[in-house]
Structure formats: C-alpha cells, structure tokens
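step=encode ok
step=design start
structure_in=
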C-alpha cells in the first residue's frame, strides 16, 4: 500500500509506504502540537441541527490524520466519518443559522462550524469548554494547512483507491486484486488485457504472480505513464532525453505562441518545475519537469495573467457585468425551501456582488426575510444585515449591492433603516461620495468597501440636495414583486385584456435616504427612458420580459444599458430554483443578471466562468468594441482519471467531450468527440473541433465531459467554463470541476488550442 506525496523542498516526486506516512502523521502530534494530540484522543461535543436537536457525539481524529470519526455515546450506534480534505472553512462563534438560534444557551467561544465543499450541509458543533473548541479549531486549521502544503492533493485521493485494492491485507496484490483496482480507477479490462497490465516480466521481478513493495511502485508508474505528453516532448527534444534551453524556447514560441522575453521565461520554467538538479545545471528540462509544467497553473487553459484584477476599475458601474444572486436567502426551491443566512455567506464567498433581500413585516416589530406568499421559512432582517456586513469584503473589496424587495410597513421600514445604519456603520453608503449632486454613476474603484442599497426611493437624488423630500410618500410596489409578475404572466397567457392594479405602499424617509445610486423604478418604454430616466435609476425585468425587449428592440436595449443599470431575474414560474442562460442577457449589456446560486448547472457554470477572471472580484468590464471574427480550433487529446459517476463497482465511464460556445446568437454552437468505451482513467481521442466565432469578446467556452449512454440521457462527469478572451493557446490542461463548481483533482483534459483570424 502506497501513497504518493509531493515534497516541495526537494521539488521531486517520491513514494513512501503508508506505514511511513502514519509515522509522519503521528510525529505531527508528538512535535508539541497539543491540539492534534487532543484530537487524536477524542472529545465529546454537541452536534446541533436545530434549537431542539442537540445531541452529544464522540469526535476523534483517526491515526491517519486525514479522517474525523464520530458516533453517538450510546453503544451499538453506527459511526460516521468525513475527510479533512472535504472541509473548506472553519467558522468560529455563532456564524450559522443553527448556532445563532441557540446563542442564548451556548456562548460563542464554545461554538464553531465546519463548512464542507460543494453543497453538503454544515456541521455545527458546541464544545464542552472554550479551550476544547479552540483546540479543535486550531487543530483543524493545522490539518488543512498541512494538506494544502503537500501540494498535488490528488495524490492523497489516489491512496484511497490503492489502499482498498489489497483485499486480503497480505501486503501483495494478486491478479484479481489488480483487475479490481483497475475497475475502481475507471478502467474496464478483460482477463487478457489485465494480464498485460500485470507485467510479470517487468514489474513482477520476484516471479511470484503478485506485486509487492517496489514492484507495486513500478506498476503504478506504468499505469500513470503519459504517452500523449511524451509524444509532444520527443517531437521537440533533439536527443529524445531532455529539452535543452533552445528546445524549450522553440516549444514555447511555436506551440504555446508565447512572446516577450522567451529566453528568460524558459530559465524560470526550468528553475520552477525541473526536479533534477543535474538537468538544471545543464539549463535543460527532463520529461518529468515538462509534465509538471504542463500540469501547473502556467500550463492550464486559463491565462494566469487574467486571474488577478487586470481590468480598468475606474469606469461607471453601468460599464460592468456584476455577479448577482436571486432570492439569495433560499437554499432550495422557491415554494417550501429553507431560508438561511448561509445563502448570503455562500454567495458572497463566491464573489457575488449583488444579493437580494425580500423584506416583510415580522413579529415584535422586527422585519423578516422570506419568499412572500410561500411556505419558505423566515429569517430576521437584522441577521441578514449582520451576515452581509461580516462577509461582504472577504473575497472582493469592490462594492456590494443590497437589492431590497420592500413589502414592509413604514414602521418596520424605519427599523430596517436603523439596523442598516447601526450594523453596517461606515460601510453603508448613505450619501453621494462627495456630498454633491452627481452627474453620473461612480466606479467600482470609487466605491471600494461600500454597501449600496437598491430599493424604492422618495423622489429623486436631486431632491435630496434641495430639502424637498417629504417624510413619507406613496409609491408603487417595485417590479421585483414576483407574485405580481406571475399574475401578469398568467393574465397575458389567458389573453385577458385589462390593466393590472398595482398595490400601493408608503415609503419611510429614513430608508429612502439610504438609496443613493440605485433607485428601483418601474420600466415604461425605451422611448420614455431615453427622455426621462436618470442615470441612478434601475429597472428590473423577468427573464421573459427581457427576452421580449431584446427581440423587439435589441439596439435600444443595448443603448439603455450603456447609460444605466438593468437587473434581470428568473421567472416566478421557476419554482424549482432552476436558472435561465445568462449569456443572452449579457449579450445585450444587462449588468445585474441574477441567478439562483444554490442550483448547479449550465447557468451557474457560465456565471462562474465569466467571473473567474479579474480577480474573481464580481465585476467584469463590458467589451467596448468589437474585433474581427476568429476560428477556434480545439484538439481534444486525452483525459486523466475522470471520476466515476455510478457507485456500482462494475460501472465504468464511456467518456465523450462536448465543447459549447455561448455568445451572440450567431456564435451559439456545440460539437462532440466520439466516446471511448470503458475507460475513464486515461481515454485518448485526438479529435479536432472547429468553431467560427464572430463576436469573440462575448464568447464563453464550456467543456463538458459526459458518460455516454445509448439508451438514456448521458451522465454528467465534469466541466470547465471560461471566457474565450482568457484562453491560453498551445498544449494545455483543463482541470475539471464538479457539477457544483468545486475542483475534482486529478481529473483533467489535455488539449491543443489554436485561435486564428477568419480568412
């Protein structure tokens, strides 16, 4: 049984036995780390699911220092486990819905929350003392840090398969165990094929018919050999053994299409990725170094120079696409789902910059947040504001917009204003930046660290400066009132020709005054807007109304969006919290395209892809001009260690790759490779796909891997989405993501990319 680790100091791959790893893990606890020692002994803590469900569980760190084991104190109950690698973050104190509900019973210093990757629910815990809580908090952070520092986390995942392969625990692997291992690794082989993988002449040096110790290491190396990369390496290597500095320069210039100081970059690559000190002295790169470079961030399809903030952030807000969430408080569907502050934490942690708050009158004078006229649960407005205040700027320093759907009485609107002012303090934008009547929208740069209110407002921004605002006034319910929208859609469908009576509402001056640059208004027409609208007014449309406008008045819609902000949100009929395709709205220049962040799929893939550039700051500059059409040529070469999609042991993936272009209607296209039968471990295609793209600056490219099924719908395996403008050319790896957007190492695709002008 083995585990492959990466030693960052030696910058060299090596293998250690599992026993050695355990020894190393045990040493972690023995080197003065009392926290880990305490975790290895175990602790009784309360697992909290609700205000009434609080049960004691015994938690213990397993000897592998990778797994947390826990069970009920009652004898005979089954136990549960989770991997340290599954934990994304540790939150201290009352930082979850559940722990807030028991804040009066357990002090914050005894409470903490483990947040898991993907959409798995949080684990809320209460320790017996503040010291025990800190011991677990610090210990978990240490374990996560150790795991991240190991690098190439997928090598740890590999162990999980290899350790299970030796079924009889005799320290050897026989023919049947090798065959079972291959199936676990997504390779299906008959007896004859598996025999060829059990290399009796090469790996089985002891001629015992089994693999043991170093023989298993050799077997693993043979299994993971990258013939596709070796082919490229040998094409550019003069002697077939190494890439000289000149060879590597040729590769970077001819294949990767790199410019600038290639000589200097070549030296940097050798220094960074070459494991052999001898090769470094020769200014050369071995195959191992070449493989490491292609598997790194520099060798990925996403241009690393576009990962950080690289765009001009000093233009008016309306010049940017803004990452936006719809009904942010909902964790599930729109009718009966749970409302939770967790929705705000997760959205803001993904770089979302516009979150929605539906406010209604609550008991005891406290406004509540929920999806009105439904059975969704309710949360306090002040808890939402607290959460936004705490998480608004952890991922991005650029402004957050609170989109308020206001259904409250004047009295509770005043309470809302008090909470906003008291909790957010100086973070809340309460007046124009310079205290004068503005002539245009400020920029994200101007508004760094500020939270803006988007809501209905008494009068205009100008009146705020001449003292003409009344204490309160009557206004229409905003267009974000989705119940009204559904009524309108139903009436339209039934062809009932009568005007909708909109309910009237009074607005409080206190809340209205906090609406500065984002006044919610009813949209009449583009002609009316062109003549009468103000730059700070924001119209909201359902997806169906937005489509109608872009079909009937596309150029006017684009012009409207060049002057002021527009918000588009999902139809009220999407009660399952599904998403529309945001691309058509971005094509028209709509900035605030609000999606259900809790729902994985194409819509969120495109959203994550667009906003993965520019520092994931939640703002992407809209293209200011259109360039010439291009031809995108993608050779899909191979795949590496794709995840199994069916839990049945005998089920093997038959992978195919589909490439989708999302952009202006003329550019929408998709093409597929053929499928490879029974091989999800190292499928090879060498299939070439070509696309003509007329508006490249708006094009998104989505790579989807599916498990082919001739009798039913293909199963999703993995995906990766990015803007065409962020693509690197040449030989590149695509590190796949799961359906919910989390990484699934070591799963990847190896491709060759060319972008050429249309002749």
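sequence_out=
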């Amino acid at each position: 049984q083995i585990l492959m680790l990466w030693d960052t100091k030696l910058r060299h791959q090596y293998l250690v036995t599992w026993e050695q790893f355990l020894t190393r893990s045990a040493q972690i606890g023995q080197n003065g780390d009392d926290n880990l020692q305490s975790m290895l002994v175990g602790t009784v803590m309360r697992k909290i699911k609700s205000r009434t469900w609080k049960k004691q569980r015994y938690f213990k760190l397993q000897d592998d220092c990778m797994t947390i084991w826990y069970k009920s104190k009652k004898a005979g109950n089954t136990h549960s486990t989770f991997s340290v690698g599954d934990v994304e973050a540790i939150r201290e104190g009352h930082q979850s819905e559940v722990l807030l509900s028991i804040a009066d019973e357990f002090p914050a210093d005894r409470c903490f929350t483990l947040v898991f990757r993907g959409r798995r629910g949080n684990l809320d815990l209460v320790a017996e003392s503040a010291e025990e809580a800190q011991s677990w908090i610090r210990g978990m952070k240490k374990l996560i840090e150790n795991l991240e520092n190991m690098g190439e986390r997928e090598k740890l995942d590999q162990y999980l398969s290899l350790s299970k392969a030796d079924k009889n625990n005799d320290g050897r692997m026989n023919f049947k165990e090798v065959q079972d291992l291959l199936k676990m690794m997504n390779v299906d082989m008959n007896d004859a094929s598996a025999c060829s993988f059990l290399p009796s002449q090469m790996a089985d040096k002891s001629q015992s018919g089994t693999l043991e110790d170093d023989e298993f290491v050799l077997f693993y190396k043979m299994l993971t050999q990258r013939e596709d990369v070796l082919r490229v390496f040998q094409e550019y290597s003069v002697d077939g053994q190494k890439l000289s500095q000149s060879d590597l320069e040729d590769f970077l210039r001819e294949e990767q299409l790199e410019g600038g100081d290639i000589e200097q970059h070549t030296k940097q690559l050798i220094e960074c990725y070459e494991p052999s000190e001898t090769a470094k002295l020769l200014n050369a790169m071995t195959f191992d170094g070449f493989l490491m470079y292609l598997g790194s961030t520099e060798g990925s399809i996403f241009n690393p120079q576009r990962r950080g903030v690289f765009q001009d952030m000093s233009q008016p807000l309306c010049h940017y696409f803004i990452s936006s969430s719809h009904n942010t408080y909902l964790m599930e569907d729109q009718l009966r789902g749970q409302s939770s502050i967790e929705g705000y934490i997760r959205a803001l942690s993904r770089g979302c910059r516009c979150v929605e708050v539906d406010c209604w009158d609550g008991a005891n004078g406290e406004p509540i947040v929920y999806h009105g006229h439904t059975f969704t649960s309710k949360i306090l407005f002040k808890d939402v504001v607290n959460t936004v205040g705490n998480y608004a700027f952890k991922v991005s320093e650029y402004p957050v917009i609170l989109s308020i759907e206001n259904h409250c009485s004047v009295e509770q609107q005043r309470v809302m204003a008090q909470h906003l002012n008291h909790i957010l303090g100086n973070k809340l934008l309460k007046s124009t930046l310079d205290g004068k009547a503005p002539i245009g929208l400020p920029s994200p740069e101007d508004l760094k660290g500020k939270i803006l209110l988007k809501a209905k407002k008494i009068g205009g921004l100008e009146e705020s400066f001449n003292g003409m605002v009344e204490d309160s006034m009557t206004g229409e319910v905003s267009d974000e009132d989705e119940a009204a929208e559904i009524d309108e859609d139903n009436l339209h469908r039934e062809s009932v020709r009568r005007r909708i009576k909109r309910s009237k509402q009074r607005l409080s001056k206190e809340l209205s005054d906090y609406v500065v640059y984002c006044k919610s208004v009813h949209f009449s027409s583009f002609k009316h807007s062109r003549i009468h609208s103000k730059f700070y007014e924001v119209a909201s449309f359902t997806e169906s109304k937005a489509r109608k406008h872009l079909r009937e008045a596309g150029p006017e819609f684009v012009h409207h969006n060049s002057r002021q902000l527009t918000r588009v949100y999902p139809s009220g009929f999407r009660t399952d919290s599904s998403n529309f395709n945001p691309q058509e709205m971005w094509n028209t220049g709509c900035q605030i395209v609000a999606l259900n962040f809790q729902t994985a799929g194409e819509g969120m893939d495109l959203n994550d892809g667009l906003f993965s550039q520019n520092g994931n700051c939640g703002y992407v500059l809209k293209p200011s001009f259109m360039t010439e059409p291009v031809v995108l040529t993608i050779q899909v070469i191979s795949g590496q260690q794709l995840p199994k999609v069916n839990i049945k042991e005998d089920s093997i993936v038959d992978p195919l790759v589909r490439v989708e272009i999302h952009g202006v209607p003329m550019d929408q296209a998709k093409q597929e490779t053929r499928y490879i039968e029974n091989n999800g471990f190292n499928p090879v295609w060498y299939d070439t796909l070509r696309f003509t793209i007329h508006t490249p600056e708006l094009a998104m490219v989505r790579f989807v891997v599916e498990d082919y099924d001739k009798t039913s719908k293909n199963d999703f395996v993995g995906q990766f989405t990015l803007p065409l403008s962020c693509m690197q050319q040449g030989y590149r790896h695509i590190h796949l993501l799961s359906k919910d957007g989390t990484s699934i190492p070591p799963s990847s695709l190896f491709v060759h990319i060319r972008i050429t002008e249309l002749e």
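step=design ok
step=annotate ok -> The domain at 630-757 is CATH 2.60.40.150 (Immunoglobulin-like).
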